């Protein structure tokens, strides 16, 4: 990744009409319906954008969508990238740098995750308050990182507490049960063993997934305030573990998604 490549990606999108979005949004697995709320859409498919990776997961559509949501200009990633697709962490987080270059001031992230905390149930929404990086690397671990920002990035408060508090207030006003917890990010694509679920619980994780943390690290590198939500799609009880059903996970994400959309829309409106 070079600054010139980044500038080419940004210039391409600006020429398409992606003018000064205020908020960037990353939509996770099974969570693409928010785009239906966006007015005056301009769409750029990932394969059109110079140096952009391509989404290889069948339920990630691979589009960057610009438009108006709740009166604010937004740029929305419908489909994201993962280590398990064979990309490196610079590829996975490249779009965050592009969104920042377009001018976003805040970043909203969503994902589908498994509930490690057994008080949480499938279909619940969890506000991510902190995370554990178990992906075995960092998107900042490359030679010329200092060209893009400080090499050593403070992560004592990776998620914006003010936006988190606003999400809590919105949830209460809408009678949405909002869990709060720690998200562990693993490589995947295989799901965890019983022993691994037990390990994650001991480590203090409330939910586990295969994304988000690299994007959050880069957003902190860029001084972008972040709010992140997990839609909990399965219950990871090692003593009563059932074989995974990806289709069921997608369906549960779809059913819970309206709650996430409500939270994001009201947060954008008040931003």
Secondary structure: elements and pairs:
Blueprint: H1 3-16, E1 23-27, E2 39-45, E3 63-69, E4 72-78, H2 89-102, E5 106-115, E6 125-133, H3 161-173, E7 178-185, H4 194-203, E8 207-209, H5 213-221, E9 226-235, H6 246-269
Parallel strand pairs: 1-4, 1-5, 5-9, 6-7, 7-8
Antiparallel strand pairs: 2-3, 3-4, 5-8, 6-9
Helix pairs in contact: 1-2, 2-5, 3-6
Enzyme class: transferase
Pfam family, one: PNP_UDP_1
EC number: 2.4.2.1
Structural overview:
Belongs to the PNP/MTAP phosphorylase family. The protein is of the alpha/beta class. The chain has a single domain (3-269), classed as Nucleoside phosphorylase domain (Rossmann fold). The protein has six helices and nine strands, in the order H-E-E-E-E-H-E-E-H-E-H-E-H-E-H. It has helices at residues 3-16, 89-102, 161-173, 194-203, 213-221, 246-269, and strands at 23-27, 39-45, 63-69, 72-78, 106-115, 125-133, 178-185, 207-209, 226-235. It has a five-stranded mixed beta barrel. Helix 1 packs across helix 2 (89-102). The longest helix is centred in the last third of the chain and has 24 residues, at 246-269. The protein is globular, with a radius of gyration of 18 Å. The chain starts with a helix and ends with a helix.
